[in-house]
User: Which sequence fits this backbone?
């Protein structure tokens, strides 16, 4: 039964000196220990706004700092919200009881109940936050508290299970009862999904308004613009859902709203076929505006305008001014680079040149383009992956 003492026979081959007073046994891997918690405090002696304390939790003991969140002083037998910063992180969960003693450990200051683990470092004294903490104190069940945890946030299932000491099956039952959603390791509610999808659609609409001649944004860049501090995997899932719902569309890897279109006219489509043939004849290598204009008998300025329009449509990519690759070849090279760096830190320009069979200058321009767009970054004499998702379709 809970709270009972017992003798435990651990049939493992390890040195008993590795076990110390205060160590825990877990039925499943624990969440990360916390060094910053919010507590509901009841004091026995007067307290100042901030003071060093000794902290006792079960058989664990550490030191830390106690900070009152709502008042500068506290008279005896009062309740108050406070923050504890622990010198040594502890495995704490909601509702755990803590005893606090003064800095000399000669007198008991009071007792506290854990309300929140991993407390925020900023904006901890806003009225909205105090209201949230008061609701947590008043919530009597795991169902009610889980609904509060998921207000405006996505939370990892592992963290929810730890906070409330739930099994995976118990958590799923609570989520179903509350009408909340779980995608892989993330839990959230319908309001959170609406907030994030609205941000994605708004950011893309604003980009179209500011850049009407551009086809759209890549998935990774849209994430950075609209939802940088949110879970990347979850935002990508929302993008996939918006695509399935036809609220977003994807053309040659570029995301855009359903009503945003730029396209070739009939004459331009015919010219594009000629340009495409030239790229195919040059085995995927980059071509200059001037060279294409000469090969196809076009004015250089007219060819330049056409090629940049093809770039805006996503067919071509300019790695330097007036020198273009087929965009599909850029993506193919990105996939090749991922294979090239698999199992090692990075690659040199010469390694890539030998694989592609390009000239060194063209290879350098291509790698520097990948550096600029965030796919790679230079580290000494090699280039390493920075954001492997930039060229994922």
Assistant:
């Amino acid at each position: 039964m809970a709270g009972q003492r017992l003798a435990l026979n651990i049939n493992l081959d390890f040195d008993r000196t590795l076990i110390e007073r205060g160590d825990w046994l877990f039925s499943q891997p624990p969440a990360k220990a916390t060094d910053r918690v919010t507590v509901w405090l009841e004091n026995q002696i007067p307290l100042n706004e901030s003071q060093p304390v000794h902290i006792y939790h079960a058989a664990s003991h550490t030191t830390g700092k106690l900070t009152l969140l709502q008042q500068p002083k506290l008279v005896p037998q009062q309740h108050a919200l406070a923050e504890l910063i622990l010198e040594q992180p502890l495995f704490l969960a909601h509702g755990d009881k803590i005893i606090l003693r003064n800095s000399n450990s000669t007198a008991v200051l009071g007792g506290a109940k854990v309300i929140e683990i991993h407390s925020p470092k900023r904006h901890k004294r806003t009225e909205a936050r105090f209201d949230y903490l008061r609701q947590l104190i008043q919530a009597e069940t795991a169902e009610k508290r889980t609904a509060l945890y998921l207000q405006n946030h996505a939370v990892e299932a592992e963290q929810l299970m730890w906070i409330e000491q739930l099994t995976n099956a118990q958590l799923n039952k609570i989520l179903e009862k509350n009408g909340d959603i779980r995608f892989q390791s993330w839990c959230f509610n319908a309001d959170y999904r609406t907030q994030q999808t609205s941000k994605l659609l708004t950011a893309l609409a604003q980009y179209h308004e500011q850049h009407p001649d551009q086809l759209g944004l890549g998935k990774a860049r849209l994430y950075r613009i609209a939802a940088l501090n949110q879970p990347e995997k979850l935002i990508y899932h929302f993008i996939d859902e918006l695509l399935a719902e036809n609220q977003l569309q994807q053309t040659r890897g570029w995301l855009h709203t359903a009503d945003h279109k730029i396209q070739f006219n009939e004459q331009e489509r015919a010219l594009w076929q000629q340009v495409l043939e030239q790229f195919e004849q040059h085995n995927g290598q980059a071509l200059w505006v001037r060279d294409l204009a000469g090969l196809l008998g076009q004015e250089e300025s007219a060819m330049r305008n056409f090629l940049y329009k093809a770039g805006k449509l996503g067919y071509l990519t300019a790695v330097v001014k007036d020198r273009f690759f087929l965009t599909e070849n850029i993506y193919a090279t990105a996939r090749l680079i991922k294979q090239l760096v698999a199992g090692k830190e990075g690659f040199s320009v010469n390694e890539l040149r030998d694989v592609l069979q390009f000239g060194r200058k063209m290879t350098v321009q291509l790698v520097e383009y990948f550096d600029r767009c965030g796919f790679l970054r230079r580290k000494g004499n090699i280039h390493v992956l920075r954001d492997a998702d930039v060229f994922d379709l």
In short: DSSP finds 13 helices and 18 strands in the chain. The radius of gyration is 29 Å.
